[in-house]
Design a protein that fits this description.
The chain is an all-alpha fold. It contains ten helices and no strands. It is 78% helix and 0% strand. The protein is flat, with a radius of gyration of 22 Å. It is found in: Membrane. It is a multi-pass membrane protein.
Length: 317
């Protein structure tokens, strides 16, 4: 196929992936909507009634209800399945875009966007299998939709790289940064839900939707572990590989370019987060707030600088 045909196939795949991921997001929103109607104390009262000598027919009905998946559970499964399908389509679009341009497919903001969304969804789906974090599906798919929307708003036709990008360090640098960003996203989403659930636990109002989320201590631990994985990836990708690439491209390792400054700010915030947890024993609310601040600096480093700033990285817009 010609490069033009491959580019068209990539566009169709990305557009199809966006539609499927939107459906996954709606499935998770419906899951949350139905879960809000569930009153946890009523469920417990019903269980006590059944165990206290309810009629046999009623007991068998309750047992059947316990065995059958609830509507929120079914919607969650649908959401995860649609997310998997959308991720496959997005990866197809991402890879075919590379064939169309005859290079690695991350040379501009459009490609950064579809690549970043694909990395985030792949990491999420892997962690669903490992850590059962499907309760983050609504946030992850919603974030992916926003990123894809921003990417499409900066669409440019497939073409060659500018001379500064002709280096294998580009592949290493951007891949590590995207992977780190995917883990940062999971950590930030866990921290956000931790704050909501932890406040409800303190007030004794956990029920309905919040009862579908794990205990706040579990979310706090997931946030810590994912950020602990992301931090060395960011250190290597943004600061080490990025500096080596800058040396080959511009003749210096570090020049306080806006992109470099914000990458360093992100590193400092997450370094403070991990240091506070390891040496000061910071957990819970304070740690979650720092993690969310770190993710905001990451977003500005990844997108904001390119959209609103200037400097040597301006070719990537």
């Amino acid at each position: 196929m010609s490069p033009e045909t491959l580019a068209q196939v990539s566009n169709y795949a990305v557009a199809s992936a966006t539609v499927v991921i939107a459906l996954a997001f709606l499935a998770h929103m419906a899951e949350w909507g139905f879960a809000r109607k569930v009153d946890q104390p009523v469920e417990e009262e019903a269980t006590v009634t059944v165990g206290a000598g309810a009629p046999a027919a009623r007991q068998s009905t309750a047992a059947a209800d316990d065995d059958a998946p609830s509507r929120p559970d079914l919607l969650s499964s649908v959401g995860v399945s649609l997310t998997g399908l959308g991720t496959v389509l997005l990866l197809v679009g991402f890879v075919v875009r590379g064939f169309a341009a005859d290079r690695v497919p991350w040379g501009n903001m459009y490609e950064f966007g579809i690549g970043g969304a694909a990395f985030a969804l792949v990491v999420y789906l892997v962690l669903v299998r490992v850590q059962a974090i499907q309760w983050l599906g609504g946030i992850v798919t919603g974030f992916a939709l926003v990123v894809l929307g921003m990417a499409m708003s900066t669409y440019v036709p497939a073409g060659p790289l500018v001379p500064a990008l002709h280096s294998y360090w580009l592949v290493i640098h951007v891949a590590a940064v995207m992977l780190a960003g995917a883990f940062f996203l999971v950590g930030a989403a866990s921290s956000l839900l931790f704050l909501i659930r932890h406040r409800a636990e303190e007030r004794g109002t956990v029920g309905g939707l919040l009862s579908r989320f794990p205990h706040s201590a579990v979310m706090d631990q997931i946030a810590y572990r994912t950020n602990a994985v992301a931090f060395p990836l960011w250190t290597f990708g943004a600061l080490i590989a990025g500096s080596i690439w800058a040396h080959y491209a511009w003749g210096r390792y570090w020049g306080w370019d806006p992109k470099e400054v914000w990458a360093f700010i992100t590193w400092v915030v997450y370094a403070g987060y991990l240091h506070a947890r390891a040496t000061r024993g910071w957990k819970g609310r304070r740690a979650a707030i720092i993690a969310l601040v770190g993710f905001l600096t990451f977003l500005f480093s990844y997108y904001g600088v390119n959209l609103f700033g200037s400097g040597l990285h301006s070719y990537a817009t």
